[in-house]
Amino acid sequence: MRHFTDLTDLTRDELAQLLREAARLKAAQKRREANDTMARRVVGLVFEKPSLRTRVSFEAAVAQMGGNSLFLPAQEVGLGWRESLEDFARTMNHYLDAMVLRVFKHTTVTSIAKVASIPIINGLSDAAHPCQAAADLLTVQECFGEVKGRTIVFIGDGNNVARSLALGCGMLGAKFRLSAPSGYGFEKSFTSTVRKHAPDAKLESETDPIKAVKDADILYTDVWTSMGQESEREERLKKFSPYQLNAELLSQAPKHVKVLHCLPAHRGEEITDEVMDGPQSVVFEQAGNRLHAQKAILELLLK
Ligand code: CP
Ligand code: NVA
């Protein structure tokens, strides 16, 4: 059974093809072309954490492709506490055609995937956010024609969003540079995974954000405190304050640079209003691309 627990579930060619298909689906949706890929199919959305974009874009994608979705809050269906993850999955195998999971622990996704006879899609875990990365790469492709050869600079935490994007950039031949305070960069085990999957990946780190942005095509940021890390908020606010994406930092980057953020943004923390609402920001187009990228993911897994 094919799953999408992380970008490592795809080959490099499949990822490139996924982006081409997402672009085609976006154009087709603009023309309101009929799409029945999900006809008579039901997708379950099992969420342990809040969500706007992931939930709504999946529900809209499934509806536009002629299928149905069920929103199943994890607390309600008892994920991992009312019965084992495996028994949960073995039951869902009989009701659903695919399942999207948003969870705290990445191992929740992989444990379910192990016994699932339906495709499992990671809608965010502590380790990865591959649906986001697919939409991010689609956005880079739209801005510059192709992802290959571009320099993507991520200012902030080496978190789930940064990891999936770094992996995707490595797979597609873009340079990825992380600018994080020391202690918040990528772990060695993660960089080895990237190198295993994309041996020629250009993965860099630069703790000085001013140096980091010099040759950027894309500046990307995300919240400093991810869901589940709330107790670290005060400490993180202090450590990350030099990494704010503001007009001053933006002025150090090339004029053609575009600004991305996975959203939701903590305005005034990792990004200022001026930058987020400024002419270089494509954050809402990027959010829109979740819909098209996820249609391509569903198609790849279910067609
Ligand atoms: N970017 C993203 O995944 O947004 P939500 O948390 O609102 O789903
Ligand atoms: N890094 C953030 C992303 C939210 C879409 C989090 O995990 O909370």
Q: How does this model look, in words?
A:
By secondary structure, this protein is an alpha/beta fold. It has 13 helices and 9 strands. It has helices at residues 12-30, 53-64, 74-77, 85-92, 106-115, 130-144, 160-172, 188-197, 209-212, 233-240, 247-250, 273-276, 283-302, and strands at 42-47, 68-73, 98-102, 120-122, 151-155, 175-179, 202-205, 218-221, 258-261. A 5-stranded parallel beta sheet has the order 7-6-5-8-9, covered by helices on one side. A 4-stranded parallel beta sheet has the order 2-1-3-4, sandwiched between helices. The longest helix is centred in the last third of the chain and has 20 residues, at 283-302. The mean pLDDT is 98. Bound molecules: phosphoric acid mono(formamide)ester (CP) and norvaline (NVA).
Computed over alpha carbons, the radius of gyration is 19 Å
Shape: globular
Order of helices and strands: HEHEHHEHEHEHEHEHEHHEHH
The percentage of residues in β strands lies in: 5-15%
| Share of residues in helices | 40-55%
List the ions, cofactors and other small molecules found in this model.
phosphoric acid mono(formamide)ester, norvaline
Query: How many strands, which pairing sense, and closed or not: the largest β-sheet?
Result: 5 strands, parallel
End-to-end C-alpha gap? 13 Å
Mean pLDDT, to the nearest integer, reads: 98
Oligomer: single chain
Structural class: alpha/beta
Total of DSSP H or I helical runs spanning 4+ residues = 13
Q: Give the strand line-up of the largest sheet.
A: 7-6-5-8-9
The tally of beta strands, per DSSP, is 9
List segments where confidence is low: pLDDT < 50 over at least 5 consecutive residues: none
